[in-house]
Amino acid sequence: MDEAKVTITEEGRSGSVRYESEGRRITGWWEFAGGDAVAIVSMGSASEWQHGHPWAMERRAEILRFVGEEVVRQKASGCRAVIDEEGGWITITR
What DSSP character marks residue 57? Predict the structure, then answer.
């Protein structure tokens, strides 16, 4: 995934997260959370990917991990990403 990139936009207390690789894209959303969770990112369920992004299904776990790592690197240094692969949820925690 050397050429893959993640772009995060902010629109108040939420925004979008876009994964791009090889000319293809998967767009999700994020919002701030509470407690130990700093933010919640949704990249879509496995079912949604099967219909909208079948090209990415074999690499789903790898892509979700990459998105989580990039969100932490770009916006939440010192935090970690907890991934629910089936649901496509990424929780950024302290």
Answer: G
Sheet-wide strand order for 14-21: 5-11, 14-21, 24-32, 37-42, 89-93, 80-84
How far, in Å, CA of 20 to CA of 31, rounded?
A: 20
Residues 93 and 24: their CA atoms lie apart, in Å, by 28
Q: Which residue has the tokens 């770009």?
A: 74
Per residue in 23-79, pLDDT (tens digit) is 999 999 999 999 999 999 999 999 999 999 999 999 999 999 999 999 999 999 999
Distance, CA of 50 to CA of 43 (rounded, Å): 13
Closest-CA residue to 35 (of 92, 82, 81, 88): 92
Question: Cα 10 to the chain's mean position, in Å?
Answer: 14
Residue where the block lists tokens 């969770």? 37
pLDDT category at 2 given cuts 50, 70, 90 is low
Q: Whole-model pTM above 0.85? A: yes
